[in-house]
Amino acid sequence: MKTRHKKLALIGGALALIGIIAALVLNALNSNIALYITPTEVAAGKAPQGKLFRIGGLVKEGSIQRQADGVTISFVITDTAKDIPVAYKGILPDLFKEGKGAVAQGKLDEAGTFVATEVLAKHDENYMPPEAAKAVSDAQAGMGATRHVSPSSAEAAKQGN
Hints:
Elements: H1 2-31, E1 35-37, H2 39-43, E2 53-59, E3 65-66, E4 72-78, E5 83-89, E6 101-108, E7 114-121, H3 130-143, H4 151-159
Parallel strand pairs: 1-2, 5-7
Antiparallel strand pairs: 2-4, 2-6, 3-4, 4-5, 6-7
Helix pairs in contact: 3-4
């Protein structure tokens, strides 16, 4: 009977170890997830407080301001319904331009400014991240489409190119 107890103890220990490993892996994955939130949702207070998330849309025309140090940049990201100010310190991608699609990852500060740790830009003239294209088209539908995304950008986003 001693061997039976040893086998049960060994199996129980192995299951406990597997459970601990699974819990640690899931915790690590959960802490590295950055949810995508639209500017409209951020303005409505639906952004997670104190956690990383992504915000995407169009870089508002005339909103890019560079500081004297050359690496501190502020701009506004919009889904054409709501605008969110973004502050970023670093080198922007070459394709980052006003009026073009961009996604920024970071956190909201107390003043409501999105402090980005990473900025991603479209990779060719027909691409906008699908989430950003959807947010822009949803916002335009809600506003009566007073402004619009170029058909090539919206169509490319729907196709996932």
